Amino acid sequence: MNEVTFKLYSPLTAELLSDENEIWLGNAPIELQGYEMTDYAGAIAAQIVEEGANIEQYMDGEDNPYLAAHVKSIRLSVEERYGELCGCATVIVDEDLTERGWNDLQDYITGQYSDGWGEGFEQRDIQVKDGILNVHFWQADHFAFTVEQVVNAPQQTKPSPSTKKYEITDTAHPVYPELHRIRALRQVREDVPVGTLGGYVQSEANLSQGNDDAWLYDDSVSRDEACVCDDARLYEQAMVQDLALARGSVIMYGNAIACDNAIVTGGRICNGALVCGNARVRENTVTHIAPVVAGHCVVMGDLAGKVVVSGSGSILPGQVVDNPTQNVVAIDEHGAVIVREPNLAPGRDRKNRNTPER
Question: Is this prediction's pTM over 0.70?
Answer without folding.
Answer: no
